[in-house]
Amino acid sequence: MSIFEALMMVFFGAAWPFSIYKSYKSKSNDGKSLWFLLIALFGYMFGIIHKMLYNYDNVIFMYIFNFIMIFVDSCLYLRNRMVLNKKSD
């Protein structure tokens, strides 16, 4: 296991709880991009696949945790978009 890869995952993952909280409370997508979220999801998915096939170690759990947080943020993005569309009707 690389300590530097683990630290990278910790720091990349540190921002997602704040983003999720903001999305949940504000019911707004200000400053968010669905494309960015999807690209990040695919990046983590490929990281998980790489860990499973070529370099399995405990860092895979950080990849999975970050993937889940981005998935939740993506779901909130879609929820917020539906709420905003209903308000404009």
Radius of gyration, taken over Cα atoms and rounded to an integer in Å: 15 Å
Low-confidence segments: none
Assembly state: single chain
Number of helices: 4
Roughly how many Å apart are the termini? 52 Å
| Structural classification | mainly alpha
Largest sheet: none
How much β-strand is present in the residues?
Answer: under 5%
Question: What's the SSE pattern?
Answer: HHHH
Helical fraction: over 70%
Number of strands: 0
The 3D shape can be described as elongated
Overall pLDDT metric: 93
Search tags:
single chain; 89 residues; mainly alpha; 81% helix; elongated; membrane
Structure description:
By secondary structure, the chain is mostly helical. The chain is 81% helix and 0% strand. It has a domain at 33-89. Helix 1 (3-14) runs parallel beside helix 4 and helix 2 packs parallel to helix 4 (60-88). The radius of gyration is 15 Å and the shape is elongated. The protein starts with a helix and ends with a helix. The model has no long low-confidence stretch (mean pLDDT 93). Keywords: Membrane, Transmembrane, Transmembrane helix. This is PQ loop repeat protein. It comes from Endomicrobium trichonymphae.
Secondary-structure topology with pairs:
Blueprint: H1 3-14, H2 16-26, H3 34-53, H4 60-88
Short description:
The chain crosses the membrane at residues 6-22, 34-54, 60-78. Keywords: Membrane, Transmembrane, Transmembrane helix. This protein has helices spanning 3-14, 16-26, 34-53, 60-88.
